[in-house]
Each structure stands twice: as structure tokens, then as C-alpha cells.
Amino acid sequence: MLVQEPNDLRFQVHPQAKFDVRAAVLLVHAGQLLATVNSASGIALVPSGIALVPGGAVKFGETAAEAAAREIHEELKLNVVPQLVGIVESFWQQPERTYQQLIMVHRVTLTDAQKAGLVWQEGLEGEWLPFAKAARVLQPRSLAQFLTSGDAIRHLVDHHTE
After folding, report:
1. Confidence at residue 150, expressed as pLDDT on a 0 to 100 scale
2. 3-class SS of residue 5
3. What is the pTM of this model?
4. For range 40-68, the mean pLDDT
5. DSSP string over 11-75
6. How far are the Cα atoms of 107, 109, 151 from residue 63, in angstroms, in the given order?
7. Which of 32, 92, 120, 143 is the 20 to 30 A CA-CA neighbour of 15?
């Protein structure tokens, strides 16, 4: 279940179709990715065997980098300056709804001190996954292509099912 907050760039195109603009943040440390793997609240629904990365809807008037930094602070009480590494156009279907997302992908390499100081928002849980495992369970899978550094911002299109 996705939460619609004021000014979120989330749009119900018609009763069976939804579009949104999302900032996602790949938090990496020593060859591992911090992934949201479970949720005890209604904030996010993470199916078993699927890993998501911290992030959320970009708000009207907010840059993707501002959204990424805000989401990381809200979810993990961490102040960072995320670097834009790519854009993913993500398309998927669930039994009664079709989704399309424009995902602004950011990456932050955490220091040991930043990793040790992470505090999850109530109801959210995460796990450090080795890059190889993250590549198998991330949703959308194309996010794995941004785990390592690159010189250029990349654009990917991802069609998948959930």
C-alpha cells in the first residue's frame, strides 16, 4: 500500500492505472546495499523475497535530490547529499492495476560512522545485502545496474511483474 501525502507527484490516471515520480537511494557500504526488506506498518508493503531501497515520492516543487535527502532523513535519521546516478522508467502490473514510475536513482556511499548511526523509522526494517544478492531481489531489478560507480548518468527502462 502506497501512502499519498500532500503534494506527492502521484497520479491516478484512471481507476486501474497509476503514475508517480519517485526518488530512490542506493545506500552502499563495503560491497553491500541497504535494502528495505520488511515493514510492520502500512507505510510500505514489501512482499516476501523482494527488496526495495529507501526513497519515496517527489513532491511538487521539490527536486529529486531534495526528495532523496528528505526520504533518507525521514526513514533513517541520516543527513546525506545523494548523487544522481540514473533514471529508470519502471512499468509493472498487479492483478487489478497497472503502474508506471519515473524513478530518479541516487547513490550514497556511507562511512563506517554513518552506517553505525542508522536509525530506522518506526515500522520499517532493513538489511545489508551483498551486491550479488541485491541484484537478485531488488525491485525493480534494473536498480542493481547502479550499485557500482559510473561516470555518466544512465537511463534504463524496466518492465516487470510483482
Report:
1. 79
2. coil
3. 0.90
4. 80
5. EEEETTEEEEEEEEEEEEETTEEEEEEEESSSS----TT-BB-SEEEPBTT--HHHHHHHHHHHH
6. 15, 21, 21
7. 143
